[in-house]
Design brief:
mainly alpha
């Protein structure tokens, strides 16, 4: 009634694989428990606001440059009503 235990040699690859899985699990578990409200700090909010403002200023500058180009090209301001894109009907021959 004695049981024989068989010993199995564990390779280095298996050991490193198991250690990697254990390390990954130990890092992933705390990160999953953090809520979005806790991760957002006031400094991050200020930075996001600055980024938004900077992007708005870039958009405004781009629009202004485009308007100035159109004004130089057409001789009119971009805020005026654009000219009709269709050609008028041809005059009847006399």
């Amino acid at each position: 009634m004695s049981k024989q235990l068989e010993t199995e040699v564990i390779s280095r690859r298996k050991i490193f694989s198991l250690l990697g899985l254990a390390a990954g699990a130990s890092v992933a578990m705390p990160l999953m428990s953090i809520s979005a409200a806790q991760a957002q700090t006031s400094g991050m909010e200020r930075r996001d606001d600055r980024r938004d403002n900077r992007q708005d200023r870039r958009d405004d500058r781009q629009t202004d440059r485009s308007d100035r180009r159109d004004e130089r090209k057409n001789g009119t301001t971009a805020t005026t009503t654009p000219a009709p894109t269709t050609t008028p009907p041809a005059k009847p021959a006399q």
